[in-house]
Amino acid sequence: MTFDLPHPGFRAALAAAPVIAVVRAPSIPDAPALCAALAAGGITWTELTFSTPDVVPHLRAAVAAGHRVGAGTVLTAAQAREAVEAGVAFLVTPGLRPDVADVAHETGVPVVLGALTPTEVATALDLGTAAVKIFPARAFGPGYFKDLRGPYPGLPLVASGGVNAGNAAAFLAQGALAVCAGTDVVPPDVVAAGDWDEITKRAKAFTAASGSPS
Q1: Which of 21, 87, 90, 150 is deepest in the core (most CB within 10 A)?
Q2: Tens digit of each residue's pLDDT (9 = 90 or more) over 23-69
Q3: Rounded to the nearest 5°, which phi and psi values hold at 133?
Q4: Total number of domains in the chain
């Protein structure tokens, strides 16, 4: 079975570098420097979330500096439009958000919709997602990805929520297209302090443990 999903180029690029750093911080002192620190550690996808105050200027700055950055925790069409206008490479939602999917399709930007159950996965496919984010991944474990690929063989799944250096390789081995690295790589206090050397160190450790290209 194959799925006629939009944005095959996005998925191919994600498969080649299958780690997305998901940043949730009270503040970001320098978004381009943060993205550069992650890239130095082998993580070239960065997701800045709307849970960070005033995230749009940070998105705009990172995009202007040439980084591959997306917007996460996108809950509304208005947020999606703000992110797209900032130039993001992709959008991510924590759950099924049809209005966000509509904006993504109108603007030609890949969207990764969040889902958990098989029914929600099917709905995400109906909404034209580029890949499906399974959240919270840690609560169900890597084996859940193998189970989902039974009825959905070849479906591009992204593991998010509780993924760390100790379990990332297992999620990838069980069929995840990519994994999301959160506080294991970008702790909020470290990001807010602008400790970019520490971010690079953590990114290197994560990519090495997961077996991802660095």
Answers
A1: 21
A2: 999 999 999 999 999 999 999 999 999 999 999 999 999 999 999 99
A3: -90, 120
A4: 1
